Amino acid sequence: MAETDLQIEEKKAVQAAGESTRDVPVFVPAVDIYESENALTLLADMPGVPIDKVDIDLDSDQLTIRGAVPQQEEKGKVIFKEFTVGDYYRQFTLSSDIDRSKIQASIKDGVLKLVLPKAEAAKPRKITVQST
Known about the structure:
- This protein is mostly beta strands.
- The protein has one domain: Immunoglobulin-like (Sandwich), CATH 2.60.40.790.
- Helix content is 0%, strand content 36%.
- β5 and β6 form a beta hairpin.
């Protein structure tokens, strides 16, 4: 395996829009986006976020993803800590190629999946040639 095949990426903190009532850091979730003929699929890593703490808003062209990780009591005295618990926030601008009324979301094992269907006008189509 080459050195560039495996890279460790640290969580990136972000200043979320607006004020928060929670005293926790806010992180940018790592996201992969895949395109098929009919849709864009977005996968966002949000470990520790339960389904009832995921908030997805669509306002005009702005798609906003928020996830809150419930606070847990420490069991014992912390001697060393590498994992920081915090909330997640990410925002995307959607093009007019996305059919906003058909967006679907699900979460499983800490991965949020958004399916952004393409509008009919944006899908590739076959044009038949007619003789004149």
